[in-house]
Amino acid sequence: MREFELLRHIYDANAGLGDDITIPPGDDMAMIRLAGRELLAAIDQVIDGRHVRLATTPLAIVGRKAITRSLSDIAAMAARPVGALVAVVLPPDFGAERAEALFDAMRATAAEYDCPLIGGDIAFHADATHPLTCSVTVLAEPVNGRAITRAGAEADDVVYVTGALGGAVLEDGLGKHLTFEPRIPEAIELAGALGPRLHAMIDLSDGLGRDASHIADCSGVRIEIDAARIPCTAGVDWRAAVGGGEDYELLFTAGGDVPAQLAGGLAVTAIGRVSPRRGEGGPLVIIRDGNEIITGDELGWQHES
Amino acid sequence: MREFELLRHIYDANAGLGDDITIPPGDDMAMIRLAGRELLAAIDQVIDGRHVRLATTPLAIVGRKAITRSLSDIAAMAARPVGALVAVVLPPDFGAERAEALFDAMRATAAEYDCPLIGGDIAFHADATHPLTCSVTVLAEPVNGRAITRAGAEADDVVYVTGALGGAVLEDGLGKHLTFEPRIPEAIELAGALGPRLHAMIDLSDGLGRDASHIADCSGVRIEIDAARIPCTAGVDWRAAVGGGEDYELLFTAGGDVPAQLAGGLAVTAIGRVSPRRGEGGPLVIIRDGNEIITGDELGWQHES
Q1: B104 FRET partner, CA 20 to 30 A, in A165, A254, A303, B118?
Q2: Which of B31, B85, B136 best tests the A interface by mutation, with the highest count of A CBs <10 A?
Q3: CB-based contact A32 B118, cutoff 8 Å
Q4: pLDDT tens across A98-120, in order?
Q5: Beta strand ranges found along B4-144 (DSSP E)
Q6: Between A and B, how many residue pairs show a Cβ–Cβ distance under 8 A?
Q7: CB–CB of B117 and A85 under 8 A?
Q8: Residues B21-42: pLDDT tens digits?
Q9: pTM score, two decimals?
C-alpha cells in the first residue's frame, strides 16, 4: 500500500463533511469557515531516514525543513501564515542541547515567515534506533478572501512553474530540498497580479509529473507539458526534472499575461497548456518535438513517504 | 533531559510572540486572535510503546485514543471543537486494511465530538521495527468568547475534580486511558453554570499531582489537596491517584457554589483549596489528617513521554 491509495480512502469520506469545510482534505490545505471567516490548515511531517538524514545534516537544517515543508503548502494556496504547531518524537538519547537546537531552528524559521510557533509537543521513543519525527501543522488565512486550489485549471490555460526544477535531492541526501525558500511572497504576488486569472496552483513536492497530474485530476482537465520548455536545474535531464520531487517551486495555470519574473527575481516559465480531458487519455502528457512521448501513468515515480 | 525541561526552553521564547497570541504556548491550547475572533489550537501525539501498545490493543482503540487525547485539551479550555488534522507514520509492513481501519477509527471518533477531520498526512518508516506515531492537531473556538486557562486560580477558590482518579493505565497497558470520554460537554456545562467563577482548569493527563502543580505554578498560588477527599477509582490508593496519569478528567478551581453532579451524571468532587503562594513553599501540598505529608516536589512522578 502506498500513501496515495490510503489518502484516497480518506478523501472518500469528504462527502460526509459539513458545509463549513469550504476546501475539503485533498488539496494542499483544507479550508474551514468560522463565523464567516475562512481559515486554512494543513499537516505534514519530516522523518529521519525518509525526508532528512540526521547523520549527515545539521540540526538547524533539519528543523528548518520541518517548517518550510509545511510553509510550502501555504504558498501553494497563495495564503498568508497565521501560526504553526510542532510535534516531535526524539530518540531517548537525543540530548538536551540538540533538542533545544532543533526547536530553536524551527522557531526561527517559522518566525522568518511570520508564522509564530503557537504549540508544541515532545515525546521520546522507547528505543534509540527509532527515528526522529517532526509533524508540523500550519494555519493560514486566504489573501483577499480567496485561496488558490488544485481544482480551478481551465482549458486553454497556460501552465507555469517558478524557478528551476530537478536535482533537489542529491545522492548524499543533501540538496535544495533542505534549503529551499517556501514561495509564499511569490504566490501572494502572483495572486495579486493575476487576480481571478490565476486558476489553479500546487507546490512541487511530489515532482512535476505527479503534481501536474494532481492539478489535472482535481480540475478534470488534461495538462500537456513541453519537455523542451522545462527550466531544469543545471546538469539535470528533463526526465529527472519531471520525475524528481521536493523542488518546492510553484506550478500554476492561468489565463492571459503572466510576468516572466517576480519581484524577488524568481523566474516564471511557461511549460505547457491545459486542454479538455479526453475520454481515454491520462491526466498528463509530456510532449517532445511534437510527439506525445510520455504520459502520467508512465512516469513511474511514486512519492515514497 | 525530560519533556518538561525542553518545553520550558520553548516557552521561554513566548515573550517574543505578538499581541495576537492571546494565550501563548504552555497551556492546554494556545489561542490566537484572527481579525477579532479567537481560535484555539493544540498538538499532541500517541506513539506505540509509549501511549498505546499496538500488539495488545485493537486498532480502533488506538485510533480512538489518538483523537480523544487531543480532544481532552479542548475540554480543558471549555472550548468547542472546530476540526482536527492527523499525521501518521506507519511501519512499512502495516498493511492497507489496518491503515484504513486506523483512519476510520480516528475519523469516527472525531466526528462523534463534532470535530471533523480536515487534514491528514501519511508517511512510512524505513524500518518495520519503527513504531506507529500519530500526531493530532485540534482546533477549537472559545464558548462565549472565553477560554479557561491554567492561570486564573485565586486564593480561597475550592479545587474540584470530575469522575474518579487513578488506575487509568493497567499493568497490561489496557485501562481507562484508552476508552475515556473527553469531558467537552461537561466542561462547557461548567463554564456556562459558573460563568466568571470558573477560574482555572486543566485536563488530568500528567496526573493529579503534577497537573495541580501546573495550575498552581501558572496561577502563582498554592494548592492544598485533602488526600481523604480524592475520589479514587475502586481499589486504587490515593497515592496512586495523585501520582498516576492519563485520567483525562477535569481539574478546576472556582469560587462559590458548584454542582455536585453534571447533566450526564458525572460527579464533581471538592478535593482542596487554593491559598496564596508562600515564599518557600512548593506549588502543591497533599494534606492527610491535618498534616502536610507530601509536596509536589516529592511526588516523584514524571510524565515519561
Answers
A1: A303
A2: B85
A3: yes
A4: 999 999 999 999 999 999 999 99
A5: 21-23, 30-34, 37-47, 79-90, 117-124, 133-142
A6: 207
A7: no
A8: 999 998 999 999 987 789 999 9
A9: 0.93
